[in-house]
Amino acid sequence: MDLSLYILTDKDLSLGRSDEDVVSEAISGGATIIQYRHKEGGARQMMDEAIIIRDVCRESSVPFIVNDRLDVALASGADGVHLGQDDLDAASARKIAGPGFIIGVSVRSSEECVRAEDSGVDYLAANGIFFTSTKTDLGEPLGIDGLKELCGTTKLPVVAIGGINSRNAAEVINAGADGIAVISYVISHEDIKGRCASLIESIEEGRRIR
Questions:
Q1: What percent of the chain lies above the pLDDT cut of 90?
Q2: What's the pLDDT score for residue 137?
Q3: Strand 5-8 vs strand 33-36: parallel, antiparallel, or unpaired?
Q4: Does 73 score more than 90 pLDDT?
Q5: Residue 36: its pLDDT value, please?
Q6: Span 66-89, average pLDDT
Q7: Within a 10 A sphere around the Cβ of 63, how many other Cβ atoms?
Q8: HSE on the CB side for 46, CA within 13 Å?
Q9: What is the pLDDT of residue 39?
Q10: What range does the domain containing 113 cover?
Q11: Catalytic residues
Q12: What does residue 102 show for φ and ψ, rounded to 5 degrees?
């Protein structure tokens, strides 16, 4: 599992383009993992959309993750699920999904890091590094210092999310993140492939200077 460039979908932000087109362009630009995110979708709609994205990801051997909904992830044949702090707890998800199924959890504190690691998850998402209009309920951004603290708390891979772009991605990687997760900076731009390529360059720069 390569967390370097983790792209999330969101129909409300993708300029009218289909998830299939968005994901295809993102993978062409270097996305290494895709998450299907549809906060208001019903189970049947989510299932149909997830299967389409799953097939696109499989063609390029890119892991496919479903946000929040373990039922949709398992039923659609996704590679994993990403859980928030208010979703099904990771330990229960692991019991249901079994070994080999990718489980990620969003965290904002050292305590949440430790609890998630103890529950058998595969990676953590440091949530809300910088201000972002996509997530408005997180309080003050963690910032680079907060990211460093979380990365220093766990041995698990950490992907950073929240207000990340090609100008600050290198700093985020240099701070200890294994990858960056991006929504609007990529999928709300006409040139999805180009945005992804620019982020890959910044990620590589961050690793060179780390």
A1: 91
A2: 66
A3: parallel
A4: yes
A5: 98
A6: 96
A7: 18
A8: 24
A9: 80
A10: 5-209
A11: 37, 106, 135
A12: -75, 130
DSSP string computed for the chain: ---SEEEE--GGGTTT--HHHHHHHHHHHT--EEEE--TT--HHHHHHHHHHHHHHHHHTT--EEEES-HHHHHHHT-SEEEE-TTSS-HHHHHHHH-TT-EEEEEESSHHHHHHHHHTT-SEEEEE-SS--SS--SS-S--HHHHHHHHHHH-SS-EEEESS--TTTHHHHHHTT-SEEEESHHHHTSS-HHHHHHHHHHHHHHHHHH-
Q: What is the CATH number of the domain that holds 58?
A: 3.20.20.70
Cα gap 194→186, rounded to integer Å: 9
Average pLDDT of the segment spanning 196-200: 98
Angle at which helices 143-153 and 110-118 cross, to 10°: 30
Give residue 100's Cα distance to chain centre.
18
Q: Mean pLDDT score of the chain, rounded to an integer? A: 95
| For residue 138, pLDDT beyond 70 | no
Please state, in angstroms and rounded to a whole number, the distance separating the CA atoms of residues 180 and 86. Answer: 22
Residues across the chain: 210
pLDDT on residue 17:
97
Closest by CA position to 104, among listed 122, 127, 130: 122
Query: Which single residue is written with the structure tokens 């003050």?
Result: 140
Domains in the chain: how many in total? 1
State the pLDDT at residue 198. 98
AA letter at 166: S
